[in-house]
Fold each of these.
Amino acid sequence: MSQQQKRRRYELDDRGFNEVPQKYRKYYRRREGPDDELAPNEILCPVCKIIVRSNRELRPGDRVYCMACLTRLRIAEGADGKLEAEVEY
Amino acid sequence: MGSKVPGEGDGLHDLSRDSFHERVHTFGHWFDSVNGYLEGRPLGYKEDLSAGEISPEVRDRLIATLCNYCVGETAALEGSGGLIRVAPNRSAKIFIATQAVDEARHLEVFTNRLRELGVEDPEAEIVSRAHPSLLKFKEKLLALVDQGDWLRAVFAQNVILEAMEFTVFQRHSTETDPITQDLLSGIINDERRHIGFGENELGRCLHADPGAAEKLVAVRQQLDPLVLETFDLALRDMGAPANERTELGRDYMDAVGRLGIA
């Protein structure tokens, strides 16, 4: 089984994020304080601090878009082993 | 080359970079976005909200703060309007036009809030309460716009000024009356687009011409002292401790760090 096939999938629900057009709202949510843990399919946008969501578990090298601040992000593994987003201009 | 993450039917994360930018730098995207948080808010806040009791001291500080917000929004409105002509392509012209509309709305709702707080002549009040450092910043920003210097003007406006506003508005919204809080919330949403556009536009320009970073370092040296002083004064007007300045300036420092102009 390839790594690609092993990825966990997620059913995205609308979390009340109203800053993007209706059809894209499920891909985003607001951070709810410092104790708000990110799920494996979520990443924090370093530019505007909104949480970007995917319907699949994220891995280093993936690219996602933050529509709230119009930014393209590349997923990378941080020094602490956690995933983080780098801006791709 | 990284792997792609497919979306669910609409393919959001599957889009190419050019397709994404083509899609989001449109008036349609702007309208569908702002409609989500401005519908039912003709004055920028929910009509059923009440400000509650505001003491004379808090009211006076709030008026001082809002007057300076009006100065910043006027700078951004005039700056954005001038930059439409300077913008290097259609996509950038359309985005900066939507920003000009946002800034005009911000100025309008802040001015209206001043009237609600009992200020009879907002224009005169803004003049009398404006911090000299912010006025100086505005003058320098508009000089860059007048020179037609897209790169430096976008840096001054969408990175420096917008980052400061984004941070100050967020801090302010945690400790103010419900009406001002709701009004700030909608404006913060707009600011996300503005700071994102600025950083991405500069990032692309610097990728194409790395030598241009030197010009932006010079702008920083000129404008940073004005921004930091304005930060301090804004915090003072809010009644917040001055030692929060470093914390509040972090987003701005992170942005210039990512762009390589720290």
Amino acid sequence: MKLTDVKNQFADGLFNKNPLFVQVLGTCASLAITTTVKDSIAMGIAVTAVLTCSNLLISLLRKFIPNEVRIASYIVIISGFVTIVEMLMNAYLPDLAQSLGAFLALIVVNCIILARAESYASKNKPLPSVVDGIAMGLGFTLALFLLGSVRELFGAGTFLGFSVFGKNYTPIGMLTSPPGAFIVLGCLIALFQYFKKRFSVKKAASSDAKPDSGKPQEEQPDNASEAKEGDAS
Amino acid sequence: MKNVKYVAKIALPLLAICIVTVAVLAAVNAFTSPVIAQNRQSELDANMASFFGEGIETSVVENAEFDKSVKIVYSVSKGGALTGYCFDVTGNGAYKGKIEVLVAIGADGRIIGISNVQNGETPSIGGRVLTEDYISENYVGHTSAQLERDKDVVFLSGATKTSTALNNAVKNAFAAYRLLSEGKEASK
């Protein structure tokens, strides 16, 4: 695997195919957990760890797992890793585990992890799968961080627990409740799409060598583009 | 026969994955569960110290007549004199079934403090009941006769179920407290 592949994978994970802002995967946990920046980062890191480990193992076992029971196998592997992460967090980061609560266990059904297992790790070699896990996980963490920042900053007037606007600021309480989460997520997706379009148009104009980069990628079905990547590597 | 072979071909790998996963989980659990138990214990000790002050001695009290809602009872003493009890109790009726709290009752029969042990309530809704502000306003200093709804204790609107569960938990704690204090008088 080449360095440019790694670069492309990171660009995809963080930007072009950001799990939350472009693929809109794993919204349930994202909306519930992003009331504070601290929880957002913790959740992002937990998801990244599970995603990287499960991608590696599923990629290693991709020829051993029969096609008929692949989803069941993936779920067993993923839930195994989630339980390990949960036990480790309970043991060594009890405060964080307490504040994430049930959502830590619910990473099992976070569709990002199953989606990457199904569409990438099951078709690619272990190393690119690990890179994919890290890139997608970081993309998810970035998205959670942005969502959590907006909600904590304006919804509670604090950032990482420190007061930012002083005592005279009246927090917009709705932002910390679920409807506020939907509104913030919608605004962030719109903003993200705006920047993505501007960025990709510029890129296409400056270099004609890469014909792929100008096209809006989110319109392609994810599986089709992944299959292409799989053949290449 | 062909069918059996086919089923075995897809079922055995899945079985193998399950067995390996379970084995790994068991190993991690053996490794982390003592640490988790120790964390719980030190948190409990810190809670009891915040209720009764530093320099206390605690010991577990056994009594066969305790209701099954009472998980553990600690008697707390300071310098040899009994200062109160801590009850690890559950209360039914919460939004997600049960809540588990630690209720500290002094030797004079008044509530010293209540802290959360485990619950599945939504933090911004039912969780408001399990905050220090709510508890110190509605429970601290009350005796077993001062637990009536809307008279002695205000149930939060929107969180009636969690309020009910907390009230039940405190009543369970007092039921155990009564057993202990009656038992002591009988032995005198």
